[in-house]
Amino acid sequence: MGLGCLLSLSLVSRVLAQDPAGAAPSSEPAQGEEPAEGTEPGNGSEPSASEPAEPSANEPSASEPAEPSATAPSASEPPEEGLRKAPERVSAAITLEEPERQRLLVPPYMRGYRGNVRTTALFPFYFERRDPESFERLIVPYYYRRGPKLNVDVALGLIWSMRGPERNTFILPPFYTHRDHKNWAVGLFPLFSTGVLKGHHHTIIPPLLTWMDGDEKTQHTIIGPYFDWKSEHARWHGVFPFLWDKKDEVDRFTIVPPVFFRFSDDDPLRSTTVVPPFYHLVRENERKWGLIPLVFRKKSPEANATTIPFLIFHHAKGPDLFRLVTPVLSYSSSKEKGSFWVSPIYQRKRGDKNLDAVAPIFFRQWDNRDMSRGLVLAPIFWHFRDPANDSLVILPFMGRWYHHGIGSTWVTPLVGRYKSFERDAQTWWVAPTFQYGYTPDSWFFNIHPIFYRKESPKKSYFALAPFYFNFRNHEAKTHRLSVSPLYWDFKDFAKQKRGRALFPLYWEFENRRKGTDRRVGFPFYWHFKRDDLERETKVVFPFYTHWIRSEFDRTLVLNSYYEKKREPEGVRWQYHFFPFFSRGGINDDRWWNVFYGLAGYDRRGEYRRAKAFWIPFNLK
User: Fold this and answer.
1) Alpha-carbon distance values, 563 to 531, 543, 555, 572, 584 (Å)
2) Whether the Cβ atoms of residue 184 and residue 195 lie closer than 8 Å to each other
3) Coil, strand or helix: which one is 208?
4) 165 — alpha (psi -120 to 50), left (phi > 0) or beta?
5) Domain count, the chain
6) pLDDT at residue 63 tops 70
7) Structural domain includes residue 107
8) Tell me, what DSSP letter sits at residue 234?
9) Which letter, b or e, does each residue of 335-346 get, where b requires 16 or more Cβ atoms within 10 Å of its Cβ?
10) Where residue 517 sits, what CATH number does that domain have?
């Protein structure tokens, strides 16, 4: 309230500043101003709200400003006596409304005219706005509005009534009703709500767990556990959690867990029905049904088959095949795979691949297409061969494997050899630990798990596990040397890197490409260097320390300290023999001190200063 009064007082002061005489406006409006309420130019009558007076052909319309007449005073001339001074306007101000014609402000009362709109307010209890077509008024806590398109009544901010030619809305919480052309709605929140809005209907009854909404193409319904979703081409409905059913143009399913399941599809034609333990499957050219785990039946163009697992029985018959499985004898015959029959003693197969067997002891197989053969007398004799391979194993005496053009291997309990025809290499084993091998340009010898030695153009190594290891990679240009656990030396010649350690006393890491060098002789010697930053630090603890940076060089030996610092004027240096003596200078300037001021002298250009008992004396 206080802020409103201050704002009103500021507006009054602005009006008074524009009209120093403080005279009330004349009953006749100035040129270009709107007449006061209840008057009309020329006859003094007010046009009705529904039929505003039209401007004559010689008068400007409300949306176009009138041109000044020839006799109208200019903005620079003083106004005639009895006429109010035209209000001042802010330069470059932009507004979408007509400029304000008249305003009267006597806080808390205000009345103003803007175009054809009159505004009256008695802050904060009363507000009124009137134009030729509508009228609105607020008398706290009641608001109403009247106009050709909409009439509004609002009381206490809770009761709303909005009426128009084709609409009617009324709200008295929690009740509401609405009508607008073909749209309507009514409800008692939160108990009930229904209506049709823009072709979409809805009904909501929360206490009954009911929700229904939709339009011409879709519908959604929930009534307790029942749900129903409909679209233009599909429907999904059910009773949660007992029934689930979905249908569309292509597939559908129905589920009543756990007693019934059905899935179907029209493209391609297929369906599955399960009523445990029974199932039934339909495919385009195939049918299956069964009673799990007792019997299984299949029907297709290839064959009709019946399987009874607990009887170990299977029978299948088709145009090109026949199968019969019983506990005593099994027989199979097909046009593609030939015939095969099995008895508890003898097994036989004829076709592209042939087999004679007395399982699990004797097996003989052959294939005339690739001339392969195989003979097994388990578990002692195993022999397989074809034009490119030959394998023979006689346990526990020997084994031989030959691969034409690739290599051969033979093994006995004591000696073995592998030969590579491609690389002209051989490797020998002498059980249990010796291994020797060679190629035209390399060789190696191992005594597992202690001694390892190899030499080749690419790699070489020598190891005495677990103490000594020496590995060289001539291609990668690396060298790894370790005397475990005390000494390590790793080199990378391509990257110009090296790392050495004599655990735990000495550590060295060097990178010549980056110009870095780090060495530690723990705990006395420390050296860190980086050439790209012109930085180096060296420490011999506790006697010596040396720092090198791009801008200075410092050395500390016991209680002696020396520093050189590069500056634009020259090299500034200083020396301290703590705490007895210190001296320094730059170019021709010099200074020295004894006990930091007991006696001293300072020369800087023409400036001279001496110290005695820490008291300075300017000499020049």
Assistant:
1) 20, 17, 6, 8, 9
2) yes
3) helix
4) alpha
5) 1
6) no
7) no
8) -
9) eeeeebebeeee
10) 2.60.450
